[in-house]
Amino acid sequence: MLVLVAGHCCMDITPELGDRRPGLEPGILYPAGPLRFKVGGSGPNTSGTLLALGADTELAVTMGEDELGQICRTQLAARGGRVRMVDSPLSSSYSIVVEHGQHDRTFWQHEGSNATFDPRQIDLDSSAPGVLHIGYPSLLPLTCEQPNAMAETFAAAKQRGITTSLDLAHVGEGSVASKVDWRAWFALTLPFVDVCTPSWDDVTSALHNHSEPTREKLEQAAEELLAWGVAVVSLSAGSLGFALHTGSAERLREAGMALSGHADAWADQQLWFPADRSENPVTTVGAGDSLTAGLLHAIINGMTPMEAGMHARTVVGRHLRQIPLR
Asked: Comparing 36 with 278, which gets the higher pLDDT?
């Protein structure tokens, strides 16, 4: 079954810092190690993990025609898999990833070419995917400025019997996304989403409900996402773990070709998976995308919800340690 992955794409520019903590004090030289360029963002990260797991995968993204865009194209071609690259008149998107010691990473993000990504332009007929996954609407300005865009895309996919999947991203203060009424966006879009895989920070930053995550809070928020119309919710909180909750058998029978045949086995689940502990992770960049990919891979291979959660947790653990998936 083909998984068509689309959405946010950027170049991750990461200076090697080790335990050094960079600062912004004027006139001070802060030492750093070698610089790494790697194509990233929800689209390449999720599709790359699916490819490594052996899934039939296609990627649809937008990128500029500048030097960063050429590096992006070269790296995507080198890893294999089918790619639909739409040229953007804007400069290529990039993230400067600040990751030091055992601290979580920080991003400096230039949206660039992602501003011209329109999910409604994805051709759903040429490759006939079984799953359509789109990531990071808060980093795709058009989907923020035109709230109907994502809902229309997923509705069109569901009319074709495609299982739909959505991942969210942090809503930054002062960004285009921060001006969106995300409750209204969710109410409009989530009835057409079969699988939703956000993090606690993604949801709370969108709903202006910042608080420290707990298992109880994650489980409550997962149920709220189900109430908005989603069939399967995976809601994660880094080292805490993730909740995997599912809707009714009736809702799952409407969840496209990847899930409808397993509706009874997947219905009415409320599962909790503690994080696979990693004392010295090599990187946390892309961990959430790995969780999404692991869950989608499990679904298309007919695993049960418990098996799917365990599989997704293993995929994330191997990503944190940078262990090959196959």
From this structure: 36
Place of tokens 């969210």: 168
Kindly report the backbone phi and psi dihedral angles of residue 165, in degrees, each rounded to the nearest multiple of 5, phi listed first.
Answer: -140, 140
pTM of the model as a whole: 0.92
Nearest to 3, CA basis, from 215, 174, 256, 249 = 256
Return all residues near 236 (Cβ < 8 A) that are at least 6 apart: 197, 198, 199, 200, 218, 242, 243, 288, 291
What tokens appear for 130 in the block? 């079984």
208-247 per-residue burial string, b: 16 or more CB within 10 A, e: under 16: eeeeebeeebbbebbeebbebbbbbbbbbbbebbbbbbbb
Question: Are the beta carbons of 167 and 234 closer than 8 angstroms?
Answer: no
Beta partners for 167?
135
22-to-30, 130, 246 alpha-carbon distances in Å: 6, 45, 43
Tokens of 69: 């865009």
Cα(295)–Cα(285) distance, integer angstroms: 18
User: What gap in Å lies between CA 60 and CA 40, rounded to an integer?
Assistant: 13
Angle between helices 287-300 and 42-52 (to 10 degrees): 50
- Identity at 3, one-letter amino acid code: V
Residue 295 near residue 253, CB atoms below 8 Å: no
pLDDT tens per residue across span 150-198: 999 999 999 999 999 999 999 988 899 999 999 999 999 999 999 999 9
> Where in the chain does DSSP place strands (E)?
3-7, 10-15, 35-40, 57-64, 82-88, 94-98, 106-110, 131-135, 163-167, 195-196, 232-236, 241-246, 270-274
For CA atoms 3, 318, 206, 91, the dihedral sign is negative
Q: What are phi and psi of 51, to 5 degrees?
A: -60, -45
CB 168 within 8 A of CB 202: yes
